[in-house]
Design a protein that fits this description.
The complex is a heteropentamer of chains A (168), B (713), C (102), D (494) and E (505). By secondary structure, chain A is mostly helical. Chain A is built from 7 helices and no strands. In chain A, helix 1 packs antiparallel against helix 2. The relative contact order of chain A is 0.07. With 713 residues, chain B is mainly alpha-helical. Chain B is 69% helix and 3% strand. In chain B, the strands form 2 sheets. In chain B, strands 1-2 form a two-stranded antiparallel ribbon. A two-stranded antiparallel ribbon of chain B has the order 3-4. The radius of gyration of chain B is 32 Å and the shape is globular. The N and C termini of chain C lie far apart (51 Å). The chains are: A mainly alpha (168), B mainly alpha (713), C mainly alpha (102), D mainly alpha (494), E mainly alpha (505). Chains in contact: A-B, A-C, A-D, B-C, B-D, B-E, C-D, D-E. Chains B and D meet through helix 32 and helix 33 of B and helix 6, helix 8, helix 9 and helix 11 of D.
Chain lengths: 168, 713, 102, 494, 505
């Protein structure tokens, strides 16, 4: 338990700090790298929560694909690779205020709702019942329609993105 | 004829349409139709009068045909020929029949039973409105006098109006006017009277404004119509109140119920006052008399017909007809003083005084008419019902005569200004002169001219019924009348001719009516003399149910009154003769005496009443109150929200454009402006910056959630 | 472990993401911040799913997988749009994009 | 560990979606194989695809049975069928609007229809989706192609901007929505709406977290329907996007948002009406008032219609603001669905006319509508009908739906409802003003530059205008035609 | 015959639609065809009206020619039409005026000349007007009530005077606002009064089912809708603008029929359905009515434009009608209906004449007129006749609108304050003087004297053929109704009793 909590503390701290750096750093490429840190930390947290498959997908899709996409984006838009003073707009204060209002509300509501509730201890059977296989079964039975829909979504997004992004 | 009296108004009504339709194409411009129609009407009226006189009298205390005992019979009789009534009348008749009335102690002579026919006009489930004719002595007397004078005026006009560009219209309106008077006279209901009443008002308007190219004439026409209509408010209200308290428009029934004491006294009084307001308007009593002198702007025959003999007496006629109401409401039998008598009395003196300062011969006659109408009203107020009617009757002849005479004069001198354009006409226009003299004598009340008899009866009534004060008023009035007529005759016919050209006597169509009327003016008074035709023949002929039910007192002819009044007249003539014929008028009296000057100014300005009406009341209505109301309309009402908009204007940049497009007035505009301005303000939220939109989105989501959390907990 | 450990972390990431999308001028950085928001959702889904038994836990994971997938598509489309704008304007600054307003 | 069991599939139930997918694939292949030679057939093909997908919808409507698939995640009930028909027909009209527009503009044509089909597919799924995941995925499927379509005119800076704004705000709101969904799911443990609905029927007051979850979940769709204050994208996007897409967004996309809201509110959150009734009350007031007021100031007709569509969303929210639990809520559902149907017809018609005029004059500014009555009376009358229908003037279809809105208010009879009623009345008047301002331009103002040459519509646009005008008038006179559809649009519960 | 009876009202309402559809397919250039189609259609409609009038049972106070068919089952609204003695005269008036307006239009098309559109609008208007008078279902009533808005909006806005755009939108917004509140009232009646929109059924059930306080609120909603349409003070500000700017035909229809929709609404719906609330509201309605009488008259005195003056006179005259209605007595209702018809004919006629003058002179500034009796004697005779009718001269129709109203005000329903209404009566009677004042003053300035503007006078011509044709029937009717009021009272009487059946006294 303690170990888990320690891990959690470490990962959470890493995630939060990295996330803050993502939104504050003055270097676009750094921001992308900090994002990797966040995503990886979150993936690790998924493992803590016995969702290994999701963790794996998180690494594969996010770190493997999305961040790479971002880096392409950074390059293609010729962003300054070094520090750029011009990354923020003039409404940081307001943005922070909005974030704080949201954060305050959520924090209060979450504490009100869950207080000191603990996550249940999982037996091996539980872990197995939450593994890849049941997830796969669920996707291809109950969530078949969303699955198919997502496939078309990806196709459409792919074609559409190409149409828009290509130089002609 | 008495059963089909509706034929008479129909004749003139048809004549009206015929003249309108084909008059212009006829050789005499439609006047022949009018003359013929009036001739026919005169014949029919005469036939009706004869038939009426031939009717059997019903003794007042004879038991009624119905089982009702005692006084019920009078009620029955008062109700007229109910057996002949048409459908729907039954219910009212029953109600009316129940009313009994304690007869006056003194015995009344027998009266003739009036002839009444009623037909359903329209009905509602709660009541039925009837239309019908009512013929009694009053009716036939009026019919006769109206027909005769109208006929003569028609004849007079054929020459007098010759060459007028609206000759045809003139005759059409004369016909229509006569129709109106007939309708008034024969109607059996108050509502119908209103029809005739207003129809006459319309024709009076049209005929006063006959020469409408001149603004003064149209002003006078408008004034006449509006003034009388102001009084008519009272008529509307009065008829309404009587309808509700008596449950009917039927005049006979209303009288019966009023005299039977069945009607609530307060409502009756209010109704009577309201009706009297109409009388004041129509019969030109103080304070609504001012229209009548102005109405002289119309052609002179019109003045003779409408503003002397017929329409102006409609008010008097109304009181005569609804005498039960007035009798009961003002308690006329009690003596002392009452509104009617006071108004009439005051009007006599006021108008007579005004007649002194006029230069215009027609104006003199107009004020004289007002004054004489005052006599009639006063007579009704003092309970001299027969006298009032009789004065109405005689006055019609001699005043029409005087007016037509003045018309004849003006025909010769092309002016009405006595001081500037007349004088010495007696030799140039002998017929006119002599007839005018006869008319003046009749008006002044010299024995045995018509005016003497009727005026004498009024004075007698005032003196005998406990209205001694009004006896004095009447005598003073007679005195003044004689004086101003002396002045008028002198200025017109004596002295040097002051006008231009050579005046000649008028042709036959003008002089013949003058002669006819002067014959009547001499003789007609005799029909009610105590010594001829069995004594007070006229009075006994016209006395009707109201007269009887009310128990209007009847008085024997009194030589004392006759002598006193004759003395007054003679003295007045003597003074007048000295003043004018002998030029002993204290010249410069107005220069020397400030009181006299003020008095003259007051009279010359007609007591400033016109100033009050025209400048202050009407002027303020037009300019002040109406403009104020309109201002209120535009500025306050339309502006309430406008004001909101004005303050909001700074908010929106486009508001000026909005205003420029002319959207200024109106509550809607104001809210429109407000809406537009707030739209402009709200637009600024739409900055175009996507991240500001983002802030709005996230912040709204957060606040919405937070608000709902608080709201639901 | 407490549920709230995860949930509060999720809330924190969510708010940081919100701050990022609102305060960053560079289009690509805004897209990155969006990923923070979506990650916070996934944390919530996985953590809360654990409270309601195995079936719910599986559902939560499936939900999270869909979110990840859709996120990928969204980023692809987003980058395409940002690129398009960059190509036309030579800038990815969101502040400059205000042709239409009011 | 249970073995995987192949889910039973009722193919008829998903036949509309399958049909549309087939059309999608067909368009893709045709475009791929024949390239330019097939260009003019693609719109036709797309249109037929829409109509073909309508066939199974009608078949199922005749059949009348509710079909529940995937353990309640995908339900084909009358509500779904009515809305699917709405989406397909609206999309068909959009295809009519697009045909010449896309052909004339220098844009990718085959892909355009591909995107359109994908988006409509997402809507079809949305109509049937009864669990959070399906709803989420359907929302994304209908949104993402729409984001792209908004910027389809690549060289047009306004188009780019429209696309970016739509995309970013769409993603923001999707983030909020997902967060809300995660909370709802986390509190209940199921994504199935029916189960959520049962779990949330807690007689005690809701915890703050539930309130937040419900609110945030709905925000995603309030964005879609452009409810104030989540509307800010709409005017800019509507103005910048290709006009047929604007029509599509303002009609079909908005309808999809409402469909999701209705589903969520009445299936998932019916027990928590104390949360959403005040929310909808507030949003309805804000939406119609702000939309109307800003619309007053617009001179560009497309932008005016954009704000009008915001305001109309406000009117549509009104029944929700006073709705109660099922089955009484049926009146609210009926009102909203009928409103959507009628609104679709009249708004599409209006956009069709705008396209005709803009094609002739090259501008959608109000002044370019000047003197249209002299130039093209038929078109003017049609546009007038659409505008005054939107304003709710009998005998045009719009009156009936406004009437239903009022009806739901008075039915509720509470003070809040009556106050809202008066606000709606005032807003109707404001709305009339700007609708009439366009009518005034057409009827009472001179043509710009004195150009009196007639304005003619292309066949497909003319077809769209005539179709919409006919239905608008017909529905106004015989409201039962669509009113009946609204009435039967019930959820299959359980 | 039964079949014919069943279809009679429907035909009377929708026949003009057939004309409209026909005209739709005739090219705009063929103006003669359009005129013929419009005339024939309106005459055919009038013929249906005459048929109805002959088949009408005048001794029956109930609804006749009732047709009850399904219309919008979703909301329980039915195609329920029928007429009684109150509807019939107004229906016939509407048909009658439409024919005459079309006849008048023959050579009086306002600019921009477009007979096709103009005549089509008139026919559409007729549908709305006729429909309102026969509808016995609240929703049906509402639809017809609103149907007149659009054509009138365009008629004013397209063919109106200088300030037409403003006037038209003001008219539109005002009435729409009223009707929005009215529909709220209708719905409240529906839900609280027994889930039906049928007026006859609501009359039976509503007042018993709804608490008095709620009735007041509902009545207030209906009041707003109807009072704006009448228009009553202080909701009248749209009227002068609309009248002043509208083309002649528009003014005539507006004055003759459209204003009646409001008063008709009171008589048909508000009072019989909510008698208790009507009793509470009546003193206030009466107050506004008499204010309107005086206020309208005073505003008339301040006008410089002839049409605007006549428009304000409408405010005053409708005040009499509303006063009559406010008495809540059978006599009052009878008077009100008579007043509606009389005002329709008379003020319609006044607008006709004013329009014809404007047609020739292009101005109605009173200060520039004068001496019209010289240049156009016949027309001004007619104008004088109508002025006299308008000021309530006995013997013409206007009298029977005013006098019975005054009569009724003396003795209102027993639950109303008699002294108060008697006060109203006196004020109303004073209003008749003012009416005479402004009308005669107008007549003096316009007709009498010499032409003030010689150049203008040369443009003045006397009446043309279509003017004779269009006006003669109205003039005749004004006279006939004035002399034989029972022609109308006999028709309305039984129905009027039904209107106030639930009100004591």
């Amino acid at each position: 338990m303690v170990l888990q909590n320690a891990f959690f503390g470490m990962l959470a701290a890493l995630a939060v700090v990295s996330a803050l750096r993502v939104v504050t750093t003055r270097n676009v490429v750094h921001a992308a790298l900090y994002l990797v840190m966040v995503l990886a930390s979150v993936a690790a947290l998924f493992v803590l929560l016995a969702a290994e498959f999701v963790a794996a997908v998180q690494i594969l899709v996010y770190v493997g694909a999305i961040v790479v996409l971002f880096l392409f984006g950074v390059m293609l838009t010729r962003a300054q690779i070094g520090a750029d003073l011009d990354l923020d707009n003039g409404q940081r204060g307001l943005a922070a205020l909005v974030a704080l209002v949201l954060g305050g509300t959520l924090t209060w509501a979450l504490i009100d709702a869950f207080g000191d509730d603990k996550l249940p201890e999982l037996s091996d059977a539980d872990v197995a019942a939450r593994g890849v296989r049941p997830v796969g079964d669920a996707i291809f039975s109950t969530y078949l329609v969303p699955f198919e829909v997502v496939s078309i979504l990806l196709l459409a997004a792919l074609i559409g993105a190409i149409v828009l992004a290509r130089r002609d | 004829m008495l059963d089909h009296i509706w034929v008479i108004p129909l004749v003139t009504f048809v004549s009206f349409w015929l003249i309108i339709a084909v008059g212009k194409r006829l050789p005499r411009g439609g006047s022949e139709i009018g003359v013929a129609a009036l001739g026919l009407a005169l014949v029919l009226s005469t036939v009706a009068a004869v038939q009426w006189v031939d009717q059997e009298k019903v003794p007042s205390h004879e038991p009624a045909a119905t089982a009702d005992a005692g006084h019920g019979a009078e009620a029955e009789a008062g109700h007229g020929a109910e057996a002949e009534s048409e459908a729907g009348h039954g219910a009212e008749a029953e109600a009316g029949a129940e009313a009994g009335h304690g007869a006056e102690a003194e015995a009344h002579p027998a009266i003739r039973e009036s002839v009444e026919h009623n037909y359903q006009w329209w009905s509602s489930s709660s009541f039925t409105v009837m239309v019908g004719t009512h013929v009694d002595g009053v009716t036939v007397a009026l019919l006769f006098v109206v027909s005769l004078i109208s006929f003569l005026v028609h004849i007079f006009s054929t020459n007098y109006m010759e060459g007028d560009k609206r000759f045809t219209h003139y005759f059409a309106f004369l016909s229509l006017f006569t129709t109106g008077m007939y309708v008034l006279v024969v109607s059996s209901t108050t509502l119908q009277m209103l029809f005739g009443w207003e129809l006459m008002g319309l024709c009076s308007f049209a005929l006063i404004g006959h020469w409408w190219e001149e603004k003064a004439n149209t002003d006078a026409a408008l004034k006449a119509f509006l003034t009388t209509r102001t009084g008519d408010v009272g008529l509307l209200v009065g008829i309404t109140i009587l309808f509700w308290i008596a449950g009917t428009f039927n005049i006979a029934e209303i009288n019966e119920k009023a005299l039977a004491g069945d009607l609530p006294q307060t409502a009756l009084l209010v109704a009577a006052i309201a009706l009297f307001a109409a009388v004041i308007g129509k019969s030109a009593q103080f304070p609504l008399h001012t229209w009548l002198p102005d109405a002289m702007a119309g052609p002179t025959p019109v003045s003779a017909l409408i503003h002397a003999a017929t329409m102006v007496v409609a008010g008097v006629y109304l009181v005569i007809r609804l005498y039960g109401v007035f009798w009961e409401a003002f308690d006329i039998g009690a003596g002392g003083v009452n509104l009617i008598a006071a108004t009439g009395g005051f009007t006599i003196l006021m108008a007579a005084a005004l007649a002194f300062v006029q230069r215009d011969i027609k104006k003199v006659l107009a004020y004289s008419t007002i004054s004489q109408l005052g006599y009639m009203v006063m007579a009704l107020g003092v309970g001299a019902w027969t006298a009032a009617l009789f004065h109405l009757f005689t006055h019609a002849f001699f005043k029409a005569l005087l007016f037509l005479g003045s018309g004849s004069v003006s025909h010769a001198v092309h002016s009405f200004d006595m001081k500037k354009d007349m004088g010495g006409l007696r030799s140039h226009m002998p017929v006119t002169f002599w007839t005018f003299i006869i008319g003046s004598l009749a008006l002044a009340g010299f024995f045995p001219f018509a005016g003497f008899w009727s005026k004498d009866e009024i004075l007698l009534g005032a003196g005998s019924n406990g209205y001694e004060f009004f006896l004095v008023v009447g005598l003073v009035g007679a005195f003044m009348t004689t004086m101003y007529m002396t002045r008028c005759v002198y200025l017109t016919f004596f002295g040097e001719y002051r006008g231009h050209g050579h005046p000649h006597e008028s042709p036959a169509p003008i002089t013949v009516p003058l002669v006819v009327l002067s014959v009547f003016s001499v003789l007609v008074g005799l029909i009610n003399s105590p010594w001829l035709f069995g004594g007070e023949w006229f009075g006994h002929t016209v006395e009707n149910e109201v007269f009887e039910l009310a128990g209007v007192p009847v008085h024997e002819f009194s030589p004392a009154y006759a002598l006193v009044s004759t003395a007054v007249v003679v003295v007045a003539f003597a003074i007048g003769y000295v003043l004018w014929f002998r030029q002993k008028l204290p010249s410069g009296v107005t220069e020397r005496s400030s009181i006299a000057r003020a008095g003259y100014a007051l009279l010359a300005n007609k007591y400033y009443l016109d100033v009050l009406y025209t400048d202050i009341i009407v002027g303020n209505l037009k300019r002040g109150v109406a403009a104020g109301a309109y201002w209120f309309n535009r500025v306050v009402l339309d502006g309430i929200v406008n004001g909101v908009g004005t303050t909001a204007r700074v908010v929106g940049d486009g508001v000026y454009r909005f205003v420029d497009r002319g959207l200024i007035d109106g509550a809607v505009n104001g809210s429109g402006i407000t809406a537009d301005a707030s739209g402009g303000a709200l637009r600024r939220l739409q900055t175009g910056r996507v991240q500001q939109y983002g802030i709005m989105l996230f912040l709204s989501a957060a606040l919405l959630a937070l608000g709902l959390v608080i709201f639901t907990s | 472990m407490l549920v709230n450990q995860f949930l509060l972390l999720g809330a924190a990431l969510f708010c940081i993401g919100v701050y990022g999308v609102l305060a960053r001028r560079n289009g690509v950085l805004v897209l990155m911040s969006i990923e923070l928001i979506l990650n916070s959702v996934n944390i919530n889904l996985i953590a809360l799913a654990g409270l309601h038994g195995n079936t719910a836990a599986v559902t939560g994971q499936v939900f999270a997988l869909f979110v990840i997938t859709v996120a990928a598509a969204e980023v692809g489309v987003g980058l395409a749009i940002v690129l398009l704008i960059y190509r036309n304007r030579r800038s990815v600054s969101l502040d400059d994009i205000d042709l239409m307003k009011g | 560990m249970t073995a995987f069991s192949t889910p039973h599939l009722d193919y008829l139930a998903i036949a509309p979606e399958l049909g549309l997918t087939a059309a999608l694939v067909a368009v893709l292949l045709v475009d791929l194989i024949w390239e330019d030679r097939a260009r003019r057939w693609i719109p036709t093909l797309t249109g037929f695809g829409m109509l073909a997908a309508l066939v199974p919808v009608l078949v199922m409507a005749r059949d009348g049975a509710d079909r529940v698939l995937f353990g309640g995640a995908f339900v084909v009930d009358d509500f779904a069928l009515v809305n699917k028909a709405l989406f397909l027909l609206a999309a068909y009209v959009v295809v009519l609007l697009s045909t010449d527009y896309v052909a004339d503009a220098d844009v990718y044509e085959g892909e355009y229809y591909l995107m359109l089909l994908s988006s409509v597919l997402g809507m079809l799924v949305m109509a049937s989706a009864r669990d959070l995941i399906s709803i989420f995925v359907a929302l994304e499927l209908l949104s993402i192609p729409a984001y792209l379509l908004a910027g389809w005119r690549k060289r047009d800076l306004r188009g780019n901007e429209a696309s970016l704004k739509y995309y970013l705000l769409g993603v923001f709101s999707a983030g909020v929505m997902l967060y809300g969904m995660s909370l709802v799911f986390g509190l209940v443990g199921s994504t199935k709406l029916v189960e959520i609905g049962e779990a949330l029927r807690d007689p005690a007051g809701p915890s703050p977290l539930i309130v937040i979850g419900v609110t945030f979940t709905l925000v995603g769709f309030l964005f879609k329907i452009s409810a104030v204050p989540f509307h800010s994208w709409a005017p800019d996007t509507y103005e910048g996007a290709p006009t047929p897409i604007t029509a599509f967004l303002s009609v079909a996309s908005k309808a999809a948002g409402f469909v999701a809201i209705l589903t969520l509110v009445f299936v998932a959150f019916p027990g928590r009406s104390e949360v959403w009734t005040p929310m909808f009350w507030l949003l309805a007031v804000l939406t119609m008032t702000v939309g109307n007021l800003i619309a007053l100031r617009q001179t560009n007709v497309v932008r005016l219609l954009a704000y009008s569509s915001v305001a109309q969303a406000g009117f549509m929210l009104v029944p929700l603001a006073v709705a109660r639990d099922l089955p009484q809520a049926q009146d609210a559902i009926q009102a909203v669905v009928t409103y959507l149907l009628v609104y679709a017809v009249m708004n599409l018609g209006a956009f069709a006319v705008v396209m005709v005029v803009a094609a002739k004059t090259g501008s959608a500014e109000r002044s370019s509508f000047g003197g249209l009555f002299e130039r093209s009376p038929g078109l003017t009358v049609a546009m007038t009908a659409f505008l005054f229908s939107l304003a709710g003037i009998p005998p045009l279809g719009g009156w009936y739906v406004k009437f239903l809105v009022f009806r739901s208010l008075i039915d509720a009879g509470t003070v809040a409802a009556v106050v809202l009623g008066v606000i709606v009345a005032v807003n109707s008047v404001i709305a009339l003003y700007y609708y009439a301002s366009v009518a005034r331009e057409m009827w009472m103002r001179p043509a710009p530059d004195g150009d009196l040459s007639p304005v003619r519509a292309t066949p497909s646009l003319a077809a769209a205008v005539i179709l919409c005008a006919g239905v608008t008038l017909l529905v106004g006179v015989l409201p039962n035609l669509l009113g009946h559809l609204g009435e039967v649009a019930t959820f299959a519960l359980g | 015959m039964q079949t014919l009876d069943d279809w009679a009202l429907t035909a009377g309402v929708f026949l003009p639609v057939a004309g409209v559809i026909l005209m739709l397919f005739v090219p705009r250039e063929r103006e003669a065809v359009h005129k013929m189609v419009a005339l024939v259609t309106s005459l055919a409609t009038m013929a249906v009206g005459v048929f109805i009038a002959t088949r009408f049972d005048y001794d029956d106070g109930n609804l006749q020619f009732v047709v009850d068919r399904s219309w919008i089952p979703v909301i329980n609204s039915r195609y329920l039409v029928g007429i009684d003695g109150i509807s019939l005269p107004l229906l016939l008036l509407s048909m009658f005026i439409t024919v005459l307006v079309i006849v008048y239009s023959w050579d009086h098309f306002p600019s921009p000349v477009n007979p096709k559109a103009f005549l089509m609008l008139i026919l559409v208007l007729e549908v709305g007007m006729n429909g309102t008078f026969v509808a016995q279902d609240l929703i049906l009533f509402f639809v017809f009530f609103e149907l007149v808005l659009l054509p009138m909006y365009f008629m004013i806005g397209v063919w109106g005077g200088e300030n037409r755009q403003y006037a038209s939108i003001k008219f539109f917004l005002f009435t729409l606002f009223g009707s929005a509140l009215m529909i709220l009232g209708f719905l409240a009646l529906y839900f609280l009064g027994g889930e039906t929109f049928s007026i006859p059924r609501l009359i039976e059930s509503a007042s018993g089912a709804i608490s008095h306080d709620t009735q007041l609120w509902i009545f207030a909603g209906l009041f707003m809708g109807f009072a704006i349409k009448v228009p009553m003070f202080p909701f009248h500000t749209w009227l002068p603008d609309a009248h002043t700017e509208a083309p002649t035909q528009g003014s005539v229809i507006l004055a003759a029929i459209l204003l009646k929709l409001g008063t008709y609404g009171f008589v048909r719906i508000a009072i019989p359905v909510l008698p208790d609330a009507a009793v509470t509201f009546a003193p206030w309605i009466g107050l506004l009515a008499v204010i309107g009488i005086i206020y309208g008259a005073l505003c008339c005195l301040a006008q410089t434009d002839m049409k605007r003056l006549i428009a304000f006179s409408s405010v005053a005259h409708m005040g009499f009608v509303m006063l009559a209605i406010a008495t809540l007595t059978e006599l009052g209702i009878n008077a009100a209906v008579f007043g509606m018809v009389a005002h329709g004919l008379i003020t319609g006629m006044l607008f006709f004449v004013a329009g014809s003058i404007k047609d020739r002179l292009h101005t109605l500034q009173i200060s520039r007129l004068g001496g019209l009796l010289v240049t156009a004697p016949r027309m001004m005779w007619i104008f004088g006749f109508c002025s006299m009718a308008s000021l309530g001269l006995p013997g013409l129709a206007g009298f029977w609108g005013e006098f019975p109203a005054i009569l009724a005000a003396y003795s209102p329903a027993v639950e109303l304050s008699t002294p108060l209404f008697r006060g109203y009566m006196v004020v109303a009677a004073l209003g008749t003087v003012l009416a005479a004042g402004y009308l005669l003053w107008l007549y003096q300035r316009a007709a009498f004297g010499a032409p003030r503007d010689e150049e203008l006078a040369t443009h003045m011509t006397d009446m043309g053929r279509t003017e004779y044709l269009a006006w003669a029937p109205i003039l005749l009717l004004i006279l006939v109704l004035g002399v034989f009021p029972s022609l109308l009272f006999g028709v309305t009487n039984d129905a009027a009793r039904a209107v106030v059946a639930a009100i004591p006294g």
